[in-house]
Amino acid sequence: MSNEWPLWEVFIRGQHGMSHRHVGSLHAPDADMAIKNARDVYTRRNEGVSIWVVEAVRIAASDPTDKAALYEPSASKVYRHPTFFDIPDEVGSM
Amino acid sequence: MYAQMVKTSSTGVKSPEEMTDQERAFQARIDAGEKIEPKDWMPDDYRATLIRQIGQHAHSEVVGQLPEGNWITRAPTLERKAILLAKVQDEAGHGLYLYSAAETLGESRDELIRLLHDGKMKYSSIFNYPTLTWADIGAVGWLVDGAAIVNQVALQRTSYGPYSRAMVRICKEESFHARQGYAIMMKMAFGTPAQKAMAQDALNRMWYPCLMMFGPSDKDSVHSEQSMAWKIKIGTNDELRQKYVDQTIPQIEYLGLECPDKDLKWNEKRGHYDFSEPDWSEFFAVIKGNGPCNKERLAARQTAWDDGAWVRDGLLAHGRKKAARQMAAE
């Protein structure tokens, strides 16, 4: 068995009201240490108010070669954007 | 630079006709300014070169803690000590960001560290010079981090996404490093004659080794072309070195110090300073392991790694036991 500490992905909430955002990764022997290390590495200049860590091997990611299959269908559905519809000025803001 | 003389795994830049369809599509993405992400297809040589370059960059950040750590306990005031401690802690963080970026390419951090300890990977030549006086700590922050900034600002535009993002984060922290160094230099240069002499001495010793950080002259760097095409390297060694000299000379003048290069002069026609090349035979000697501190630096890294083994193993064993207990309880 490898003696390298597992890799964790780190997510930080920058301010109250914002969502957590991926900021980087680090190695740690367990979740508690991962949070402690994340605090030392990623919040030394008041960058955060909350930390999430998740073991990197637990993350499932989409395959870049599936890009067309996944995202192209939405390209033709322009009516999903409000600007698709012309509303007369007389109606006021909508 | 922090990554000097990185050998490009390539037989030279291929013309579009020589490339496979996959390689052509890859180069087109880079030319269009797109970022390459870890799961994207990439040529093996691109991957191998990046691992070497980012790995060397990471090693430089970590080994770079040693010359400065040397002065933490001897900083002249409590405030300077706290600042230096924070700066050295940043360097550990920079190493971590970069090792993480290298790991996204499929190389483990432990393996990179092993290669460093075995002498199969290098770190920047600059960290093989000693820090003899407190003024050296000022000069390191100002001049060494200043040189690093020139390179790293450019590298924010590198084609590999995780490397680029690490550079953005590092650059934000790096200007604190340069400014705290310059603040030390101002205190010394505007202090007593003895302090000013120390500042001048630090500048004299650091100047040429800092110019060497950018690597040999373009006419002698064989690996640049492919790395430039891949946007792994942004700006040639000579371009970056010129930029560094141009921005540093006014800073030297403000301090009332003298640049040790007696042939340095402003060239009106070029709009740049003309300056003397460093002694490249010294550079190659340092790279080969014969600088003033090579053995000391590597020994310090190896000792830290060995002495920390029981902590790493103990915490890992504890983490596994806890995980197993939790699993059993569920």
Summarize the SSE layout with pairings:
The complex is a heterodimer of chains A (94) and B (330).
Chain A: E1 7-13, E2 20-27, H1 31-42, E3 50-55, H2 67-75
Antiparallel strand pairs in A: 1-2, 1-3
Chain B: H1 21-31, H2 44-63, H3 65-69, H4 78-103, H5 109-117, H6 134-155, H7 161-189, H8 193-212, H9 224-229, H10 237-255, E1 265-267, E2 272-274, H11 280-290, H12 294-307, H13 309-329
Antiparallel strand pairs in B: 1-2
Write a concise synopsis of the structure shown:
The complex is a heterodimer of chains A (94) and B (330). Helices cover 22% and strands 22% of the residues of chain A. With 94 residues, chain A is α+β, with helices and mostly antiparallel strands.
General description of the model:
The complex is a heterodimer of chains A (94) and B (330). By secondary structure, chain A is α+β, with helices and mostly antiparallel strands. Chain A is built from two helices and three strands. Chain A has helices spanning 31-42, 67-75, and strands spanning 7-13, 20-27, 50-55. In chain A, strands 2-1-3 form a three-stranded antiparallel beta sheet, covered by helices on one side. In chain A, a hairpin with a 6-residue loop joins strand 1 and strand 2. Chain A starts with 6 loop residues before the first strand and ends in a 19-residue tail after the last helix. The model of chain A has no long low-confidence stretch (mean pLDDT 93). The model of chain B has no long low-confidence stretch (mean pLDDT 94). Chain B is mainly α and 330 residues long. Chain B starts with 20 loop residues before the first helix and ends with a helix. Chain B has helices spanning 21-31, 44-63, 65-69, 78-103, 109-117, 134-155, 161-189, 193-212, 224-229, 237-255, 280-290, 294-307, 309-329; strands spanning 265-267, 272-274.
Descriptive labels:
heterodimer, A: 94 residues, alpha+beta, three-stranded antiparallel sheet, 2 helices, 3 strands, 22% strand, B: 330 residues, mainly alpha, two-stranded antiparallel ribbon, 13 helices, globular
